[in-house]
Design goal:
The structure holds 2 protein chains of 2 kinds. Chain A is mostly helical. Chain A is built from 12 helices and 2 strands; from the N terminus they run αααααββααααααα.
């Protein structure tokens, strides 16, 4: 039993890293602009298909697709911002409809370009077992867990130390006051969408390297990313990693100790429980009044 | 122009008009309600390929009637499936072929029934589809056929303990439970592992199979993405089983080509071996038509789509000949169906089910798929014990 639980915790930890990578871009945009980008999962999926195209057409390791994915997905993300930026009233609500529509368009484009077939990496190196004592995983899972931690640390540093990062936080806190301080809110928001695009590019290539993709998978990714963002607390980047790992571990332990059929239910149960006890999420600051 | 000439010209014009009218009357509209987008897009598109080939072959071989397909995407959603059926009915189709996923097919078949349209499918194996009193619903495959094949193979391999890993979707749950009951009745030790269709990491389940179940054999009841996830997890954790089998969508040339590292020695239900060699005129017509239209080798989804549609087109043609198209003739003719097809003999019982449906078991061997069960259809011996890792 100990071995089972140990493996469960390990699998949950790695799965959490994967969830965190997927949620990072959505959390950033949500935290910075209060915009829920419902096309975020589709951006991740787009990057995954770029990984597939590079691997299948050029016969190289999908890791080499990251630069291409970063450029294309960032452009797509910036394009979404340009559309969202045109919304003049009720941006928080209207952007939901808009980004949902963009998600549908990306899904159908993926269907047209890559067909509905199931795709996954054929790289043996990525799929080979990585064994630490009694613990097993795929090499790609460990690799991208590390990437996830590095990106989260980098994003946290960027938000707290760099000028643009602080500008994003300032616009998020009070758009008008930030404007008075000489910050261009529109440009700052564009920067946050670009950074979110970069995160989605890494997440997509990671997903292709250890998972299975189909054009309809984007919606599932968005929902998972949204759960983690809310679980973490809006605006908390380290919270994304901790919330994602918590979710991954709860799901894996549910499979081991109860039934795999209850895995998703357990994740949603955790989400509701945290919101009930801590309405601002695990690491979210309480909103100021007035 | 003299009078006789005028009469001759009028006669020619009238007969030409009559001929055109007759041609129009012989062009029969058939609705195709199928998922082309959403989670079932892959299987829907595969089935649609077979439906199109059936229409092409029928139109070339039947000199009297022409089938024209009208397709509506049901977006893999039950409500959209009902809307698709209603839209097709408004376009005066005489019957509907298609459907995928029991939860989509049930409401779509109900809607077709209310509109007095025959609905034929190969995409739903849930038994409630044929036990719900639907008078105009027909299907060519069912859970029992897949179950017989799986249980038959495991019996021949003398397997004593099995871990069944299955999706909680209606059809997969039903098949897994049926296999559990039958094998359990034969004294085989069974461990069940139901999983939510949304999960992607199967390592915790495979680890339970490895450390707790210690079964001889793994049976997967799911879909392509589930199989890939399970096989990848098994490749990492290497449980000491002697074999691994799945059902539909697994022993296919596509899986062999797309996932060459994961497939060796994996069993799955199959109709034909691969590379495929059709010996009957019907099979050759299908394979030639398929290759011509799609420039690839036919797969099992195409075969099922072809068979269900060809049987429907033949029934429609017979009803049209008897003048009973609008009087329930299509359903009546479907019930009279009894012929050998690419998937074996097809008849429909009072519920619209095909009691003769039996699958075979294939195994990925080399770069192809060999039939290994039943013995009389086998093209090779099973590699056992044998796993992909």
């Amino acid at each position: 039993m100990t071995e089972l639980i140990m493996q469960s915790l390990y699998s949950g930890l790695l799965q959490g890293g994967s969830y965190a990578l997927i949620a990072l871009g959505l959390a950033l945009v949500f935290g910075a602009m209060k915009v829920i980008n419902l096309a975020h999962g589709e951006l991740v999926l787009l990057a995954a298909y770029i990984g597939y195209t590079v691997e299948s057409k050029l016969g190289v390791n999908p890791l080499l697709a990251i630069p291409v994915a970063v450029v294309l997905v960032t452009l797509a993300s910036a394009g979404i911002y340009l559309l969202v930026g045109r919304i003049k009233t009720n941006r928080e609500i209207n952007s939901l409809t808009l980004t949902y529509g963009v998600g549908v368009i990306i899904t159908n484009l993926a269907l047209l370009i890559w067909s509905a077939d199931v795709r996954a990496t054929s790289s043996s190196w990525m799929q080979e077992a990585f064994v630490v004592g009694p613990l097993y995983s795929m090499r790609s899972e460990v690799l991208f867990f590390g990437v996830s931690v590095v990106l989260i640390a980098g994003l946290w540093w960027w938000l707290s130390r760099s000028w643009y990062g602080r500008a994003v936080r300032a616009v998020s806190s009070n758009r008008d006051a930030a404007k008075l301080m000489g910050i261009n809110p529109g440009f700052t928001e564009l920067v946050s969408f670009i950074v979110a695009g970069i995160m989605a590019a890494f997440a997509g290539v990671a997903l292709f390297s250890y998972g299975v993709i189909t054009p309809s998978f984007g919606g599932v990714l968005t929902v998972k990313a949204f759960i983690i963002t809310v679980l973490a607390g809006i605006g908390s980047i380290p919270g994304v990693l901790i919330g994602a790992i918590l979710l991954g571990i709860v799901e894996a332990l549910t499979v081991t100790l109860a039934s795999s059929a209850l895995q998703e239910l357990a994740g949603m149960g955790l989400f509701l429980l945290v919101l009930f006890v801590m309405p601002n999420g695990l690491f979210g600051a309480a909103r100021r009044r007035g | 122009m003299n009078k006789a000439r005028m009469i001759a010209v009028a006669a020619v014009v009238a007969s030409a008009a009559a001929a055109m009218g007759a041609a129009r009357a012989d062009e029969l509209l058939v609705g195709v309600e199928i998922p082309l987008t959403g989670p079932l897009a892959r299987v829907g598109m595969g089935t649609q390929e077979g439906i199109r080939v059936a229409a092409d072959v029928f139109n070339k071989t039947n000199g009297k009637h022409t089938i024209k397909l009208v397709t509506v995407d049901d977006e893999s959603a039950p409500a959209k499936a009902v809307a698709a059926v209603e839209k097709l009915a408004s376009q005066n189709v005489v019957a509907i072929t298609g459907g995928y996923g029991s939860n989509n097919i049930a409401p779509a078949a109900d809607a077709a029934g209310k509109l007095d349209l025959v609905y034929v499918s190969s995409g739903g194996v849930d038994d409630s589809l044929v036990n719900g009193g639907r008078k105009n619903f027909f299907r060519i495959n069912n859970t029992a056929g897949y179950q017989k094949a799986l249980v038959g193979l495991l019996g021949d391999l003398n397997v004593k303990s099995v871990s069944i890993i299955h999706s909680t979707k209606e059809a997969t749950q039903g098949l897994a439970t049926a296999v559990q009951k039958t094998l359990g009745g034969k004294g085989v030790k069974i461990e069940m592992h139901a999983f939510d269709p949304a999960i992607t990491d199967f390592k915790p389940i495979i680890n339970k199979v490895k450390l707790r179940d210690r079964s001889e054999f793994i049976v997967m009841v799911g879909y392509e993405n589930d199989y890939v996830g399970i096989l990848r997890a098994a490749r990492v954790l290497k449980p000491s089983v002697k074999g691994i089998a799945g059902v539909w969508s697994l022993a296919t040339p596509k899986m062999a080509a797309d996932f060459p590292d994961l497939m060796p020695n994996v069993y799955g239900t199959a109709v034909l071996p691969y590379p495929v060699a059709f010996s009957t005129p019907d099979g050759k017509a299908f394979a030639d038509g398929y290759r011509k239209l799609y420039n690839k080798e036919p797969d099992y989804l195409g075969q099922f789509g072809y068979v269900q549609s060809m049987l429907l087109f033949e029934a429609i043609a017979r009803a049209a000949d008897k003048g009973t198209l609008k009087k329930g003739g299509v359903a009546e003719e479907m019930r009279k169906t009894d012929r050998q097809t690419l998937i074996g003999r097809v008849q429909f019982n009072a519920n619209g089910d095909n009691p003769n449906f039996t699958q075979r078991m294939g195994q990925h061997q080399g770069k192809g798929v060999a039939l290994v069960w039943p013995k009389e259809s086998a093209t090779a011996k099973p590699v056992y014990p044998g796993v992909p890792w």
